[in-house]
Design brief:
Layout (H helix, E strand, L loop, with lengths): L3 E2 L6 E2 L3 E3 L9 H14 L3 E3 L8 H9 L8 E6 L14 H15 L4 E6 L8 H13 L3 E7 L3 H14 L6 E3 L13 H8 L2 E4 L22 H4 L1 H7 L2 H16 L4 H10 L6 E4 L4 H8 L8 H8 L17
Parallel strand pairs: 3-4, 3-10, 4-5, 5-6, 6-7, 7-8, 8-9, 9-10
Antiparallel strand pairs: 1-2
Helix pairs in contact: 1-2, 2-3
Length: 323
């Protein structure tokens, strides 16, 4: 099976990463374990979680899943979001990072994390403070490499500059949102990752279910994140996204492939992407995403699919000038 190297770290991972946001939530423990086992059976060795997923329950279940196979997998978690009502149990302060990693390691029942993400940017904490805390975790062997999720390109570059200047462990992996309906990452984040040789694991390849082929502008879901979660309603609520979803589903069916499979395969085919993060509420739902592992998308096919959606504008207005 194909394996990909995460940036310059030398760590090799499967071309898909299983996300565990559903573990202990919409997927009960038994279902979560079944999804983990199915992913391992398919060749997945890369698993992503976070301290806030279902109040830590996702980490606990994943910890049980990896018992006896920790040396065979690559594991991530995240820190930043509030983990309690206490005022300091949030953000990227040294205090919260040091406490957060201990809690995650305990729930996962592991001695170290391969990658530890700053889940969001913290404008109230000096980047140097955050980077020094992460560097200490590397030196202590509690994490191998720090990373960031949901940061802008300029924020990541600023951090890389500070790391280089202060000789601190730098971010080696990023986790942006990326799918056919939401392609903003193509403008600066993915080119930056390629230039800096950063690993990239992207989340939401199915657009919260939008790109599964189930929905059109005239047939929107009655339940689920697209109508129940305010962030998803704001993100995908406009009719244009359902137009994209309808055209995309028609293209997939013409090709004889599941829309969900094609959506993941399209993300996987971007040259900057190490592995899309897939997730599901049950094993049956997971199968279509796992099938993307066997899809090798040509440059021409990727271009054809890309033309279904809106290509984001370039980072500058001088697009008429080329080298």
């Amino acid at each position: 099976m194909e394996h990909r190297t995460v940036g310059r770290t030398g760590i090799k991972v499967s071309p898909l990463c299983l996300g565990t946001m559903s573990f202990g939530g919409i997927a009960d423990k038994e279902t979560s374990i079944a999804m983990f086992n199915r992913a391992r059976e398919a060749g997945v060795n890369f698993f992503d979680t976070a301290d806030i997923y279902n109040d830590g329950r996702a980490e606990e279940i994943l910890g049980e899943c990896i018992e006896g196979s920790r040396d065979d997998i690559v594991l991530t978690s995240k820190v930043n979001n509030p983990t309690s009502e206490r005022i300091n149990d949030r953000g990227l302060s040294r205090r919260h990072i040091l406490e957060g990693v201990e809690d995650s390691l305990s729930r996962l029942d592991t001695e170290y994390l391969d990658f530890y993400f700053c889940h969001h940017f913290d404008s109230k904490t000096d980047i140097k403070v955050t980077l020094e805390a992460m560097d200490d975790l590397v030196k202590q062997g509690k994490i191998l490499h720090p990373g960031v999720s949901n940061w802008a390109a300029w924020q990541i570059e600023k951090a890389l500059g500070v790391s280089a200047e202060k000789q601190l462990a730098r971010f080696e992996i990023i986790q942006p949102m990326y799918n056919l309906a939401k392609r903003q990452a193509e403008v600066e984040i993915l080119p930056m990752a390629q230039e800096e040789n950063l690993g990239v694991i992207t989340y939401s390849p199915l657009g919260g279910g939008l790109l599964t082929g189930k929905y059109t502008k005239d047939n929107k879901p009655e339940v689920g994140r697209l109508v129940e979660d305010e962030s998803y309603i704001e993100r995908y609520g406009e009719d244009i996204y359902y137009d994209i979803a309808e055209k995309f589903a028609a293209h997939a069916r013409e090709r004889g492939i599941s829309p969900a499979t094609l959506a993941v395969a399209w993300v996987k085919s971007h040259p900057s992407v190490t592995a899309p993060i897939i997730g599901a509420r049950n094993v049956n739902q997971l199968e279509d995403s796992l099938a993307a592992m066997k899809v090798n998308m040509t440059t021409e096919w990727r271009k054809e699919v890309s033309e279904i959606s809106i290509t984001p504008p370039p980072p500058t207005d001088r697009s008429e000038e080329t080298e």
